[in-house]
Amino acid sequence: QVQLVESGGGLVQAGGSLRLSCAASARTFSSYAMGWFRQAPGKEREFIATITRSGGSTYYADSVKGRFTISRDNAKNTVYLQMNSLKPEDTAVYYCAAVRSSSSYYTPRSYDYWGQGTQVTVSS
């Protein structure tokens, strides 16, 4: 069982930045690929970014490419999402997720463990 706890959300003006953190309880954190997703009211959960176990490869949704950066620190059991140039359409609840392996890291159902989410609100 892996417990994930997100933090770092809040209210920010358009153009601002936030850094989300996700702390994992797993003893073998480096065995899990990690992902960030978001869900706005009335919308489906949306893939944002994923990072491989070692942190050597990262992948992003087109909507955030060039603005968001996913990273991880396996020594601290933590994955991060640096969000720059935020837009009002980035407003959502942001979730981190973990999976040991999957054929696809872009869909929510591929992930086995989820955090409780953290709210990000971007004002115009």
Number of extended strands? 11
Low-confidence stretches: none
Distance between the termini: 40 Å
Question: C-alpha Rg, in Å?
Answer: 13 Å
Q: Let me know the largest β-sheet.
A: 7 strands, mixed
Overall 3D form: globular
Oligomeric state of the chains in view: single chain
Query: Could you tell me the mean pLDDT?
Result: 96
Helix proportion range? under 10%
Class of secondary structure makeup: mainly beta
Number of helices: 0
Describe the structure.
- The protein is mostly beta strands.
- It is built from no helices and 11 strands.
- It has strands at 4-7, 10-13, 18-24, 33-39, 46-51, 58-60, 68-73, 78-83, 92-99, 113-114, 118-123.
- The strands form 2 sheets. Strands 2, 4, 5, 6, 9, 10 and 11 form a 7-stranded mixed β-sheet that branches. It has a 4-stranded antiparallel β-sheet with strand order 1-3-8-7, with no helix packed on it.
- A hairpin with a 6-residue loop joins β4 (33-39) and β5 (46-51).
- The protein is globular and about 40 Å long.
- The mean pLDDT is 96.
